[in-house]
UniProtKB/TrEMBL annotation:
The chain crosses the membrane at residues 112-138, 144-167, 179-200, 212-232, 239-265, 271-291, 312-331. This is TIGR00341 family protein. NCBIfam families: TIGR00341 family protein. The keyword Membrane applies. Residues 76-96 are annotated as: Disordered. It comes from Thermalbibacter longus. The keyword Hydrolase does not apply. PANTHER family: AT15442P-RELATED (PTHR20992:SF9). It holds the Pfam family DUF389. InterPro entries: DUF389 (IPR005240). Keywords: Membrane, Transmembrane, Transmembrane helix.
Length: 333
């Protein structure tokens, strides 16, 4: 549902445009001031972005304009299912031409940008997840390590960085990089310091499993990064927990810190390779998935900036990915 405040004189043109081009499931209005009208528009989520773009381009510069996107849990009567492509697209129940099959750019930005905010809660969750992962690894307890992967807030900043490069948003990119640096630096330093005083055995299964890089790790990380981006763009938040576990950014990072603190440099380098591969693959897959989903800025000058940022990001992540493959190739010879 979209709530839009417009000038009373614009009500009829907006109503007609909505009915002709976007075919909302419901549309009603109420007068909130003598010259202001509040429109309530219920549309399929795949139409939200096109509708918001149209409203902003026409009324965004006018005083008092505001659009707010609200979730709709249920509606009666139930909306009709879209007709098959063989039918007339303008017939009853047909899918509108501007249907994009994902949540709007604005909703996606709001969901992901929140994960890149460096707050006391973010730092606390990072510390707590590092502590849980550290003792899970030392005690060889897979269930505890699994819990640490769910707690760790590392997926959000990386997907925020992918979205920032896709949209050419430098402000979001800076926030994402800062959150990533803190989110990886804090667990690493804590693990490295702890490794100097705690008994670290590199032969423990849960530690040893994270001291080498293999081809399957690249495939899993790429698939997980794509799944995470899809979960955000389609609004399926329940899938994110599985993605957090599959990406597994935290355990190899903590293993690397523990082993460095204990003086085991060779296996620590292997753990770092595994962490770096997960990080690179998640960002590469995230950018590619956002591009495939048609996530673009609205304004033409933002599109040009986003294209440059995307080319640079894809080049860097792709070169890093090729480097990982080279390391794997020579490491197996």
């Amino acid at each position: 549902m979209i709530a839009v405040t417009i000038h009373a004189g614009d009500q009829e043109p907006v109503r007609q445009a909505l009915l002709d081009e976007h075919r909302p499931q419901a549309l009603w209005s109420q007068t909130i001031q003598d010259d202001r009208v509040l429109l309530w528009i219920v549309v399929d989520e795949g139409q939200t972005e096109a509708l918001l773009d149209r409203l902003e381009s026409r009324f965004g510069a006018r005083e008092g304009f505001r659009a707010v996107v609200l979730p709709v849990e249920a509606a009666l009567p139930r909306p009709e299912e879209p007709a098959t492509p063989s039918g007339d697209r303008h017939s009853s129940g047909a899918a509108p031409a501007n249907h994009i099959g994902r949540i709007s750019r604005e909703e996606l930005y709001d969901d992901i940008a929140g994960a890149a905010h460096l707050t006391p809660v973010f730092i606390a969750m990072t510390l707590l997840s590092a502590v849980v992962a550290m003792f899970g690894l030392l005690k060889n307890n897979a269930a505890v390590i699994l819990g640490a992967m769910v707690i760790a807030p590392l997926l959000g900043p990386n997907l925020a960085l992918s979205l920032a490069t896709t949209l050419g948003d430098l402000d979001l990119a800076r926030k994402a990089v800062k959150a990533n640096l803190v989110g990886t630096g804090v667990p690493f330093l804590l693990a490295a310091i702890s490794g100097t005083v705690l008994p670290v055995n590199p032969q423990v299964d849960e530690i040893a499993l994270r001291t080498f890089l293999e081809p399957s790790a690249l495939v899993v990380a790429l698939a997980s990064g794509a799944a995470g981006a899809l979960a955000y763009t389609t609004g399926v938040a329940t899938a994110l927990i599985g993605v957090m576990v599959a990406v597994a950014l935290l355990p190899p990072l903590v293993v690397c810190g523990l082993l460095i603190g204990a003086g085991y440099w060779d296996p620590a380098f292997g753990a770092f390779q595994l962490f770096a591969s997960n990080l690179i693959c998640v960002n590469l897959a995230g950018v590619l998935t956002f591009l495939a989903q048609g996530v673009r800025p609205r304004r033409w000058w933002e599109v040009q900036r986003a294209q440059r940022a995307t080319r640079i990001a894809l080049s860097l992540w792709s070169l890093s990915f090729v480097l990982l493959i080279v390391i794997l190739w020579f490491g197996r010879r």
